[in-house]
């Protein structure tokens, strides 16, 4: 088990990353801004960013969760899967709340497809954690 300071640091990393996501979601007219920068690649860059930011969020949530395990869990395949459920649930719920938040931002919209893309990023990160855990 990690020390209380390590746990607090990991929790702060999760909250800070959630803050980064919130900050970017709070940008009005962001699609027009990125369209000027990326042109025809704008759609792919933006959706790739969704995948990446939620893969990072799941990884930070899992990193925090592992610091709470005392003693460390013996990770059989079914245990590894169950161990990843809370971080995955937190990530998907945050994706849903983020889309809801965007519905209040001028020139932004809440799209279910973005929640699916965010969840896919989280699922990809969960698979990497699943294969990586001993």
Report what the structure shows.
The chain has 134 residues and is an all-alpha fold. It has one domain (4-132). The chain contains five helices and no strands. It is elongated. The mean pLDDT is 91.
Shape descriptor reads elongated
Number of strands: 0
Number of domains: 1
**Continuous helix count:** 5
Mean pLDDT: 91
Main sheet summary: none
Uncertain runs = none
H/E topology pattern: HHHHH
Structural class: mainly alpha
State which percent range the strand residues make up: under 5%
N- to C-terminal distance: 16 Å
Would you spell out the secondary-structure blueprint of this structure?
Blueprint: H1 4-25, H2 30-38, H3 42-68, H4 77-102, H5 112-132
Throw out a few tags for this protein.
134 residues; mainly alpha; 5 helices
Quickly describe the structure.
This protein is mostly helical and 134 residues long. 78% of the residues lie in helices and 0% in strands. The model has no long low-confidence stretch (mean pLDDT 91).
């Amino acid at each position: 088990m990690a020390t209380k300071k390590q746990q607090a640091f990991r929790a702060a990393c999760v909250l800070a990353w959630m803050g980064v996501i919130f900050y970017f979601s709070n940008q009005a007219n962001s699609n027009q801004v990125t369209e000027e920068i990326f042109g025809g690649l704008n759609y792919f860059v933006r959706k790739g960013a969704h995948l990446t930011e939620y893969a990072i969020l799941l990884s930070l949530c899992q990193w925090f969760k592992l610091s709470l395990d005392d003693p460390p869990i013996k990770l059989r395949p079914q245990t590894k899967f169950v161990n990843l459920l809370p971080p995955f649930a937190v990530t998907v719920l945050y994706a849903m709340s983020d889309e809801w938040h965007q519905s209040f931002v001028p020139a932004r919209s809440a799209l279910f497809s973005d929640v699916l893309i965010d969840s896919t990023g989280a699922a990809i990160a969960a698979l990497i954690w699943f294969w990586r855990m001993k």
